[in-house]
Design goal:
By secondary structure, the chain is of the alpha+beta class. The chain is built from 8 helices and 7 strands; from the N terminus they run αααβαααβαβββββα. It has a single domain, classed as FAS1 domain. The chain has a 7-stranded mixed sheet with strand order 2-1-7-6-5-4-3. The chain starts with 6 loop residues before the first helix and ends with a helix. It comes from Coffea canephora (Robusta coffee). Pfam families: Fasciclin (PF02469).
Length: 230
C-alpha cells in the first residue's frame, strides 16, 4: 500500500473494486468538515449497494446536481448514520450480543444489533450482506448492507445506555479506564480525495461536527472496551 495515500483513498479504491460506486460518489460529495474527519480514519462504513441506493428517492436527491435543494447537512447525516467511529472487521462486530446498541458517528443515533451468526447479522432491520470489503487500510473498514438505514429507523440513544451520555472518566483518575489506544482518532489529513473538485472547498461548514464525532468515538471506544473486559 502506498503510504502517501490517505485512509479514505485506500478505502474508496476497495469500495469501487466491489462496485459500490454510488456510495463512493456520496463520499466524494461530503462537505469539507466531514471529509477532514473521514480522511483521519478510525471508521467502519455500512454501504448500501448501487441498486438499493438507486431505488431510494431520498438518496437520488442527495446525488442530484449542486443546484438541487440538497444541503451539506443532509448528506453528512446520511454518511454519519451509515458509519461507526471505530474500524471493526466483521469478526469483531459479531462479538456484539443480540439486542445491544452501538452509536453511529452521529452520537444521538444508535444501531440496534440482531446477531444470529454471519449470515443473519442485522443493524436495525438492515442485514450485513457483504462483510469485510475494506480491509487493506490501517484504520477504515467497510461492509455491504442490503438496505438503507433511514433516519426514522434509527432509535435515539437512551440516556443511561452504556453510559455514553455520561462524562468520559478523567485520565488523572486512578479508577478510570481509558479506551484502547487503537480506537483514538487519528490526526486528520489535509489531502483532498482523488478526483475531487476544488469547488468542494467552498461548501458551507457544519458547526459542531468535529466535537460530535469525537463524542461518538469515545462512546464506541467504551463499548468495545467493555466487550474486551467481559
Amino acid at each position: 500500500m502506498d503510504i502517501r495515500r490517505t485512509n479514505i483513498e485506500v478505502a474508496i479504491e476497495e469500495m469501487q473494486r466491489a462496485n459500490y460506486f454510488t456510495f463512493v460518489m456520496l463520499l466524494r460529495m461530503a462537505p469539507p468538515d466531514l471529509m477532514m474527519i473521514l480522511e483521519g480514519g478510525n471508521l467502519t462504513f455500512f454501504m448500501p449497494n448501487d441498486k438499493t441506493l438507486s431505488q431510494d428517492s431520498n438518496i437520488v436527491n442527495l446525488a442530484a446536481p449542486a443546484n438541487h435543494t440538497t444541503t451539506p447537512s443532509s448528506l453528512a447525516h446520511f454518511l454519519l448514520r451509515h458509519s461507526i467511529p471505530s474500524p471493526l472487521l466483521f469478526e469483531y462486530l459479531q462479538h456484539f450480543p443480540a439486542g445491544s446498541t452501538v452509536p453511529t458517528s452521529d452520537p444521538d443515533l444508535v444501531l440496534r444489533i440482531t446477531n444470529h451468526g454471519r449470515r443473519s447479522f442485522f443493524l436495525n432491520n438492515v442485514r450485513v450482506s457483504s462483510p469485510d470489503i475494506c480491509t487493506r487500510g490501517s484504520s477504515i473498514r467497510c461492509h455491504g448492507i442490503d438496505g438503507v438505514i433511514q433516519p426514522n429507523s434509527v432509535p435515539p440513544l437512551p440516556a443511561a445506555d452504556h453510559d455514553c451520555r455520561r462524562p468520559i472518566p478523567n485520565a488523572n483518575n486512578n479508577n478510570a479506564t481509558s479506551p484502547p489506544p487503537a480506537l483514538q482518532p487519528a490526526p486528520p489529513s489535509t489531502a483532498p480525495p482523488p478526483g475531487e473538485a476544488d469547488s468542494r472547498n467552498s461548501a458551507p461548514s457544519l458547526p459542531g461536527l468535529e466535537q460530535m464525532f469525537e463524542f461518538a468515538t469515545k462512546c464506541v471506544a467504551l463499548l468495545v472496551l467493555n466487550l474486551i473486559v467481559v
